[in-house]
Amino acid sequence: VDFIEVANIKEIPENQSKIIEHNGKQIAIFNINRNFYAISNVCLHRGGPIGEGFVNEFNVTCPLHGWQYDLKTGQCNTTPGAKLETYELKIEEDKILISA
Questions:
Q1: Nearest 10 degrees: CA dihedral of 28, 70, 97, 21?
Q2: Helices then strands (H, E): number in the chain?
Q3: Edge-to-edge strand ranges of the sheet holding 95-99
Q4: By the 8 A CB rule, do 67 and 44 touch?
Q5: Over 80: is that where the pLDDT of 100 sits?
Q6: Residue 63 near residue 52, CB atoms below 8 Å
Q7: Within 10 Å of residue 46's Cβ, how many Cβ atoms?
Q8: pLDDT digit string (tens) for 39-66?
Q9: Which one of 35, 37, 49, 97 counts the least CB within 10 Å of its CB?
Q10: Overall average pLDDT of the 93-100 stretch
Q11: How many CB atoms lie within 10 A of CB 80?
Q12: Which residues contact 81 (CB under 8 A, 6 or more apart)?
């Protein structure tokens, strides 16, 4: 698997997120207690911006209508069977790399 640099860890403060575009997709990268997660930024309900949502531990709640997703798996906790795409990340020095 090839990885490409998409951000620097210094750009995403702890317990915050950054929205990037990768291969034509909007992706939200979260820094949760210095662990990084990448998930689709588009809520399955009405396309809300997941990267602007409220984070509680490893769950993010869409700011529009409250759908909640697991950051590790993309599984929707609000609607069983719904799942956001997640992306493999790795950190090299201060660089955040995402699977190409």
A1: -20
A2: 0, 10
A3: 3-8, 95-99, 89-92
A4: yes
A5: no
A6: yes
A7: 10
A8: 999 999 999 999 999 999 899 999 999 9
A9: 35
A10: 93
A11: 8
A12: none
Provide the 10 A C-beta neighbour count for residue 23. 10
Which residue, chain included where needed, has tokens 């990768």? 22
The dihedrals phi and psi of 56, each to the nearest 5 degrees, come to -130, 110
Q: What is the pLDDT of residues 18-28, one digit of tens each?
A: 999 998 999 99
Q: If pLDDT is split at 50, 70 and 90, which confidence band does 78 have?
A: very high
For residue 99, the one-letter residue type is: S
What Cα–Cα distance (Å) separates residue 24 from each residue in 27, 56, 99?
9, 28, 14
CA dihedral 19, 92, 72, 43 (to 10 degrees): 10
